[in-house]
Amino acid sequence: MAAIPLDLLDRIRALERQVRELAGRAQTRPAMTQINHGAVVIGEGGSLDVRAPGGAQVLGVGQFATGRYGVSMAREDGTGIALEVGGNDTTAAQMVRLFARGGYPSPIVMDDGYADGYLGRPWVPIPLAPGAPVTAADWTTTHAGTIRTQHAVLAAQWSIWAPAGTTAEARLMLNKGGDLAQLGDTITATGKETYASQRITPNTHGLSHGEIAGLIIQARRTAGTGTATAWCHGIWGTNTINAKEAN
Predict the structure, then answer these.
(1) Which end of the chain is less packed: N or C, by CB atoms within 10 Å?
(2) Contact 136, 221 (CB under 8 A)
(3) In what order do the strands lie in the sheet with 140-148?
(4) CB neighbours of 105 closer than 8 A, spacing ≥ 6?
(5) Which has more pLDDT, 5 or 100?
(6) ∠ CA 210-70-31 to the nearest 5 degrees?
(7) Residues 136 and 220: beta-carbon distance below 8 Å
């Protein structure tokens, strides 16, 4: 007859205890309020929606009603979107946009939706200091300023005025490394004020983001003896409004 270990009952009790522990662990689920390891994947058009107690959405990640994907962050009081990446943006690029309280859908800060690498908003004024009056037949610099390019488009409004019996003309110039290039057409005034309003796109100014250049308004008197005056009504860096302007 085979010998029976004296501690057999102790061994059986130990096995039973281990089985109960394993069975208990198999039924235990991890806490659903935290993720200790691994990643959460939301795909196939899914989204994550976080709302404040009052019901206002404060975070949205995933597919938007536009069909685009992005991230949207809002204020808990429901006053509107504060920050958005893509999502409701329908341009080809997924812009990053920052909105003022209650200011959606007009962003106060954004990158350019069509011209890669440029700032979209805020629009930045480019100051041009006034120079000499126009009394000669040679081109005279009447305004000059230096820009560090931030935007793809320069929006310029300027004019030339000539008294009765006098004709004068003006032009807007770009000084890039000492090389002068005319931007747009020359305007002419005879006994009146003539305005120019133009949008100068990358195809015209050829400036990359951060590049330094000079803007100059020049004018000259072509007839008569009166003193003409060139005016700079404002030059701003601004965003493109369509894909054509980005070229």
Answers:
(1) N
(2) yes
(3) 129-130, 140-148, 212-223, 167-176, 179-190
(4) 88, 99
(5) 100
(6) 125
(7) yes
Quick: pLDDT tens for 156-181.
Answer: 999 999 999 999 999 999 999 999 99
Whether the Cβ atoms of residue 52 and residue 58 lie closer than 8 Å to each other: yes
d(CA 25, CA 13): 19
The DSSP bridge partners found for residue 121 are 110
Count the neighbouring beta carbons within 10 Å of the beta carbon of residue 204.
16
Q: Which residues pair with 237 in a beta bridge?
A: 124, 154
Comparing CA positions, the residue from 71, 61, 128, 127 lying closest to residue 97 is 71
Place of tokens 């250049």: 213
